[in-house]
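pinning this so it doesn't scroll away 📌
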Amino acid sequence: MIPLVWAALVAATPAPPLVDVAGIIPDALVDLRYATSDNLAHRPVYPAGARCLLLAPVAERLARVAGRLRAEGLRLRLWDCYRPLTVQRELWRLVPHKGLVADPAKGSHHNRGAAVDVAVAAADGGPVALPTGFDDLGRRARLQAVDGVSPEARQNRERLRAAMEAEGFRPNRMEWWHYEAPEARGARVLEVPLAP
C-alpha cells in the first residue's frame, strides 16, 4: 500500500519550472542542433521554434559562465539544453551505446534540464577554432584529445572548461561540449514542450 501512496505523491508533484536561457543570457547564440540536420540523427528532431530550456539554478550558473567568457572576448554557443525524453528514445534507437548516448530507461541529465551542450564563439558571434563539431563521435571529441586538435582549438576548449568548472559544471570526458550541473542529482526526467 505504501508504494502506491508514494507513487501517487510523486505523480502529483509538479515538475520544476524550466526557464528560457535566451532571456537570461541575451548575447548567447542559441544554435540548437537537434532543430537542424547537423546532429546524430541527421534530421531535425526538435520542432521549429525550439527554445534552450534549463532548470532555473542551472541557467543562473550558465549566466555566470557567460560573464566569465565575455570578459575574455568570447560568447556562448548553445547546441543543446533540455531534451524531451521522446527525443532521447529516438537518439538511443539510432546509437544504443552507453557512453555515447544516455539510455532513456534512466534518462539523460538533458532530460532533467540540468545538462548543456555548449561551445564558444567570438565576441561578434563568428566562429572560433574548436576541436570538433557537435555530435562528433570520434577521438577528437574527447575532453583531453590532442592528436588532430589544433593548439587554438585546445585553448578555446580549455577556456570553456575553466569557465564551466568554475561555476560548478562537470565535463563529460567523451564529449568536450557536454557539461552537467550539480542540480542533476535528484532531478526528475521531464517531458515538456520545447516550443512556446
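📌 and the second one:
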Amino acid sequence: MSKQDVTLKAEARDERGNGPARRLRRAGRIPAVIYGHGQSGRALSLEEAAFKAVIHHPGLISIDAGTETVTAIIKDVQRDIFSGRVSHVDLQAVGADEIITVTVQLEAVGDPAGMTMGGQLEQNMRHLDVKVRAADLFETLKVDVSGMALDTVMHIRDLKLPEGVVALGDPDMGVFQVRLPKMEEEKPAEGEAAAAGTEPEVIAKGKKEEEGEAGAAAPGGAAKPEKKK
C-alpha cells in the first residue's frame, strides 16, 4: 500500500468542447473533470508532464485548485487512439476515511507445490473488485500460491486480504488452479501421412485447383479431339 503524498496543481477552465480542449493539449495541458460528494463535475486542466509522473499512483492525490485543495483518486484516463497521449482525465474526490470500491490487479507469487508433480498454474481472474478505505488504496494484490497442490483451486474466499479490505464478487469463483496440462491430440507424423497416401489440406488453393480441373475436362467426359490425318 502506498503512503506517498502526491500533489497536482490544477487550473479551473471555463470553456468546454473539442476546440478549447485541443488548445489546452497544444499548450501542454490535459482537460480534466473532478466529481464526487454529490457535487456536479468541475472542469479543470492539469499540466501534462506533472500528471504523467503520477499516472500510475494507486493512492490519494491532493488536487491543488488554487482556492482549495481536495483529495481525489484517478478514476479514468482517456488516450488518443493514434498518438497514445493522455487526452482527458476523470478524478473522483474522496476523503481519506471514505470507503470506496476499486479494481485491483491479482499477481501470483511463488511456485505451487503441485508443479513438482507436473502441474501448471492457471490464473482464471486477472482483476478483483474490492472495498477499501481511500487512504489505504493499493493497485496490486500479491497472492502466495506456493502452498497449492496438484488439482486444487484457490477461490475468492481463500484470498488473504489486507486488514479492512473486502473482496466483492462470488466467493466461490476460482482465481487460481493447479492441474496437469491438457494433452493435445496425437497427429500423424509427416512421413506417416505420406506413407498413407495423404497430404495436408491447403484450403487457399482448393478453389483454384477445382476451377482448373473443371476447365480441363469437358462436361460428361467428352472424348479427346480427333487427330488430323
